[in-house]
Target: Chorismate synthase
Amino acid sequence: MSSNSFGKLLTVTTFGESHGPAIGCVVDGCPPGLAIEASEFAPDLQRRATGKSRYTSQRREADEVEILSGVYEGVTTGTPIALLIRNTDARSKDYAEIARTFRPGHADYTYWHKYGVRDPRGGGRSSARETTMRVAAAVIAKKWLAEHHGIRVRGHLSALGELTPRAFDWDAVEDNPFFWPDAAMVAELEQYITALRKSGDSVGARIDVVAEGVPPGWGEPIYGKLDAELAAALMSINAVKGVEIGDGFAAVAQKGSEHRDELTADGFTSNHAGGILGGISSGQDVRASIVLKPTSSILIPGRSLDVDGEPTEVVTKGRHDPCVGIRATPIAEAMVALVLMDQALRHRAQCGDVGAMTPRIA
Ligand SMILES: Cc1cc2nc3c(=O)[nH]c(=O)nc-3n(C[C@H](O)[C@H](O)[C@H](O)COP(=O)(O)O)c2cc1C
Model:
């Protein structure tokens, strides 16, 4: 299977299946000299982890990173960085039934038609278990972006089903299992998810990601536009059905006089564009949002077909995850960070000698 790599100067290749012995990635192109050690991967992996809270999946993985190469005495050497995480909670069971059935909303039917063979254990390669390695790879990117450019990439849930935050505080985001910026609403969210779980159904979610400190100039027109690469990277996350840059689809109802971000000596007057103009960062915050679809594996039976085309019924047994979007904030941050680091290296390679033409807008 091809297309397991992305990026141009910073390339990330992931490998592994949901229920295989391990998952891993190779990060190639990271400059030498970045101090990194295995323990630094834990915080972001725990933020993404299954079993982090009772509102998400029950799978409990240790998610311990082994650095196999590319780091010597705690410093990157410029050679490929290989990271490995062993799957420790991939319970073996009988997959004969699942292997013959296409779960609605999953990649079973399409993988089967494309490859003629599939690993049915937990969704195999199509499982969101793969996104663990994106989060791991992005620990490197986040650190490099922070150290070299003072950039901070962070995200939060901005809608859970029909609920939206009534207040906003970044400090609240990491204090609750929903990555929710309104602490006063957390109890309401808990009740909402508990009721949803009891009903056996699921809902979608929206996540906003902001990268602060990105300098003007990153992004390569025409086919390597920063917004285009962010959209592709974010859309590659499991269950993502929509990506917006800046105001995104809200722009349809805006006037030009409102949407264009005027330039003044005191700075841009607004940031409807999401910090990207002509595919190049403007120096404003880079803002992107994603929408994740409702969990497909739910307790409510769904109609499907088996590999012989015979009608069958699919129902998820045990505990289901009523909203997969709850855990996707670190994954969205990861994709934004990896795209930004790749673009930073590409900008340095082609335009590193170009000095500032005018003073930067504050
Ligand atoms: C963090 C995360 C966890 C997920 N966990 C589940 C899950 O427990 N059950 C499920 O039905 N889908 C889950 N998904 C979504 C499926 O992986 C995805 O819908 C499926 O592979 C089909 O791909 P597509 O929705 O991108 O077309 C998860 C997605 C993410 C981002």
